[in-house]
């Protein structure tokens, strides 16, 4: 069968490409219902993965591109069939307001830029899809929520694991009582950051922090969705094995603990200086779940006391963009939320972990 991707490849170099693609999309819309039309903002490494995965989406597609690199606008425009009239720079993208082919803008830039860009997207009256971390502080996250609420647009975060099948199976088992009472979560999230000093992940202003905002957030998020409670307190200790590479404001390694209302606790490691750390372990009075890998692009694998987790792997970003379309177009909420409030919960915990690490004190969460 000829897929949309095959057609795009065949048509990319043809002058007929755009009219034909419009017809194709119109047919698809007519046959399958509405499609969320998305502009990608920031065409970097993760955006490449998202764009590729979106070719298999049935309810979302790329209709706009925003970039600071003109050559990318040209090559991505040709590859994904986005006409020049829907390509923008960072200076011009407020004009998406007047583009009826764009419903939502997906922010895929460095963390420190998310908030200001989200405010501009909301002001342009388009839905905001934003990569994790949604922002770099809870105050920024709250500003984004308020701006989207005022503009009456949705704010959704790229929490792809909230839609992942084996993760959802563990959540289903926990809700069914298969693990008994929750006692303990362990989240180990890290990799050796090989990026050069010029990379935004090594720039405090652009990254907003270090490993905690980049990968530690998966352990925080995992603790919350697997235990199924919101933490009441945090403690944290920061260590640096390589202070030469990780300067002030760029956390290399943080061990943190979360305490939950039921008495369950989480013990987590976040690092930019160790490889092979991609593991969640959940322990209850009657059973356990272990996910490894737990946060990377998958297949997410693992087992519980009753055997291996066997749900089929589907590219995370494909499922995520279709789920985002379901929220925006049909008001259909996923089992684990992916909205701005969910992003804000993680940011409040991140603020508290940084405070606990700096002060050496336990920090209570309200
Ligand atoms: P990249 O550095 O690969 O891409 C970022 C892109 O942002 C650049 O290519 C550039 O695109 C644009 N950009 C705009 N301003 C700047 C600037 N001042 N400095 C650098 N880049 C700029 O980063 P990633 O793709 O790895 O990460 C982007 C976001 O995605 C981050 O928030 C990250 O946390 C998140 N992410 C999420 C993942 C997930 O699994 N959910 C995985 C990886 C990243 P252009 O040239 O088009 O302007």
Oligomer: single chain
Number of helices: 11
Query: Termini separation (Å)?
Result: 54 Å
Largest sheet: 9 strands, mixed
Q: Please give the order of strands in the largest beta sheet.
A: 14-13-12-11-7-10-9-8-15
Q: Average the pLDDT over all residues and give the rounded result.
A: 93
Question: Which fold name corresponds to the CATH topology of the largest domain?
Answer: Dihydrodipicolinate Reductase, domain 2
What sort of overall outline do the alpha carbons produce when their principal axes are compared?
globular
Bound ligands: NADPH dihydro-nicotinamide-adenine-dinucleotide phosphate
Give me some keywords for this one.
Dihydrodipicolinate Reductase, domain 2, 2 domains, Rossmann fold, six-stranded parallel beta sheet, nine-stranded mixed beta sheet, alpha/beta, 366 residues, binds NADPH dihydro-nicotinamide-adenine-dinucleotide phosphate, globular
If you had to describe this structure to a student in words, what would you say it looks like?
This protein has 366 residues and is of the alpha/beta class. It has 2 domains: 4-159, NAD(P)-binding Rossmann-like Domain (Rossmann fold); 161-364, Dihydrodipicolinate Reductase, domain 2. It is 37% helix and 20% strand. It has helices at residues 4-11, 17-32, 45-54, 70-80, 114-123, 138-151, 165-175, 204-207, 211-227, 316-330, 340-359; strands at 36-41, 60-66, 87-88, 104-107, 127-130, 155-157, 182-190, 233-239, 253-259, 265-271, 277-284, 288-291, 302-304, 307-308, 363-364. The strands form 2 sheets. A 9-stranded mixed beta sheet has the order 14-13-12-11-7-10-9-8-15. It has a 6-stranded parallel beta sheet with strand order 3-2-1-4-5-6, with helices on both faces. Helix 4 links the parallel strand 2 (60-66) and strand 3 (87-88). Helix 6 runs antiparallel to helix 11 (340-359). The model is unreliable at 1-31 (pLDDT under 50).
């Amino acid at each position: 069968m000829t897929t949309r991707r095959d057609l795009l490849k065949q048509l990319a170099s043809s002058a007929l490409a755009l009219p034909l693609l419009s017809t194709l999309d119109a047919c698809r819309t007519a046959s399958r219902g509405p499609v969320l039309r998305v502009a990608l903002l920031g065409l970097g490494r993760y955006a490449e993965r998202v764009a590729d995965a979106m070719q298999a989406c049935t309810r979302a597609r790329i209709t706009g591109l925003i970039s600071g690199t003109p050559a990318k606008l040209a090559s991505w425009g040709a590859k994904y069939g986005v006409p020049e009239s829907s390509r923008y720079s960072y200076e011009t993208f407020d004009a998406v307001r007047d583009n009826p082919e764009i419903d939502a803008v997906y922010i895929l830039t460095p963390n420190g830029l998310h908030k200001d860009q989200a405010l501009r997207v909301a002001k342009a009256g388009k839905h905001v899809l934003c990569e994790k971390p949604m922002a770099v502080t809870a105050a920024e996250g709250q500003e984004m929520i308020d701006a989207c609420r005022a503009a009456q647009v949705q704010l959704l975060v790229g929490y792809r694991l909230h839609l992942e099948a084996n993760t959802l199976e563990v959540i289903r088992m926990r809700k069914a009582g298969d693990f008994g009472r929750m006692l303990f979560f362990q989240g180990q999230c890290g990799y050796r950051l090989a990026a050069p000093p010029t990379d935004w992940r090594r720039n405090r202003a652009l990254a907003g922090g270090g490993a905690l905002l980049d990968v530690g957030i998966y352990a925080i998020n995992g603790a919350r969705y697997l235990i199924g409670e919101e933490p009441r307190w945090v403690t944290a200790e920061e260590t640096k094995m390589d202070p030469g590479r990780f300067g002030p404001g760029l956390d290399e390694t943080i061990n943190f603990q979360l305490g939950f209302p039921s008495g369950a606790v989480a013990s987590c490691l976040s690092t930019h200086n160790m490889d092979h750390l991609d593991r969640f372990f959940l322990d209850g009075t009657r059973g356990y779940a272990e996910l490894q890998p737990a946060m990377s692009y998958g297949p997410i694998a693992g087992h519980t006391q009753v055997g291996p987790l066997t749900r089929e792997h589907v590219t995370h970003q494909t499922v995520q963009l279709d789920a985002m379309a379901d929220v925006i177009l049909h008001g259909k909420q996923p089992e684990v939320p992916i909205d701005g409030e969910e992003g804000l919960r993680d940011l409040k915990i991140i603020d508290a972990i940084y405070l606990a690490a700096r002060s050496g004190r336990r920090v209570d969460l309200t």
